[in-house]
Amino acid sequence: MIKTIGVVTPGGDAPGMNTAIRSVVRTAIFHGLRVMGIDRGYAGLIGGDIHAMDLKSVSGIVNRGGTILHTVRCPEFRKKSFRRIAVRQIKEHGIDALLIIGGNGSLGGANDLQKEFGIVSMVIPASIDNDIPCTDSTIGFDTAVNTALDAIDKIRDTAASHERIFVIEVMGRDNGFIALEVGLGAGAEIIMVPEEKCDFDRVCKRLRAGLDRGKLSSIIVTAEGVCRGNDLAEYILKKLKVDVRVTVLGHIQRGGSPSAESRALACKLGSAAVELLLKGSKNKLVGMQNGKIAVTDFSKALRTKKTIDRSVLELAEKLSI
Ligand code: F6P
Questions:
Q1: Considering 42, 233, 272, 314, which has the largest number of Cβ atoms within 10 A of its Cβ?
Q2: For residues 266 and 185, is the Cβ–Cβ distance under 8 A?
Q3: Can you state the percent helix, strand and coil of the chain, rounding each to 5?
Q4: Whose CA is nearest to atom 2 of ligand 1?
Q5: Atom 8 of ligand 1, nearest CA residue
Q6: What's the gap in Å between 210 CA and the centre of ligand 1?
Q7: Which residues line ligand 1 (CB under 6 A)?
Q8: Residue 246 main-chain phi, psi, to 5 deg
Q9: 293-315: per-residue pLDDT in tens?
Q10: Is 228's pLDDT higher than 90?
């Protein structure tokens, strides 16, 4: 029987994590559970950075970016010896199940804890990258896209005024979900994602065609995993002899007040994860598909790869002619 849950936010923070913490804590307390907050992600779990939470611990955070539970990258958690220490902490603090709000790394950690030590958990997908499978969107993705879009709209103003080409790097080391969504919405002339071959000559040909048609400025949105923005800018300058500037949007995409969509998703998934746990569900990724809560076994989620919709790339190119 579940009496005490632990809530933790490992990995990269995402806007809406606080909203999800609030949802988990308040739903759990509503159902009479005791809640322990685990600070600093899996590192805090290893170090026993664990404290009791009550209704007041989560007041005033529904709209705040980041995570009040803090987080650090924790490569040690990939080692079983460290996971064993974490399990000792879980037991010592009387935690019966973990509510883990995080990304693919967090999911992998949860799966290891279950397989090796029988630790029960539920994972709530939160990452600006939107690369977690079995959910249409992740907590934080919509906010990050809107933040990047707002920045690019501003860059457009100066790009148009100076008749310049801008290379804008957005986050996404291994995938192009942010680049694709942002590029489409911003009307980017070119979108570059890690899933496609990086072809500087193709970029130049498309820019050249635009210039020949009288286009005075262009925006290239590239995911960080594709290439260094400066390398591309130098290549364009050499080939086309045009004015190019580079902007790396970086971590501003991870901060800020969560959007309405990120907040609603966080409220729904946080609460659903606790209630499913109380109904006997365990070791599941709790996502949203076609507007409905979608529950997936860790093993299936880890075998599934979320892929970008390549037709959106074509659409963006067609529309930004
Ligand atoms: O996973 C989220 C993410 O923001 C990625 O898009 C990015 O590549 C990475 O985290 C950056 O991580 P860090 O803040 O640890 O440098």
A1: 42
A2: no
A3: 50, 20, 35
A4: 12
A5: 173
A6: 33
A7: 12, 73, 103, 127-129, 171-173, 224, 254
A8: -125, 135
A9: 999 999 999 999 999 999 999 99
A10: yes
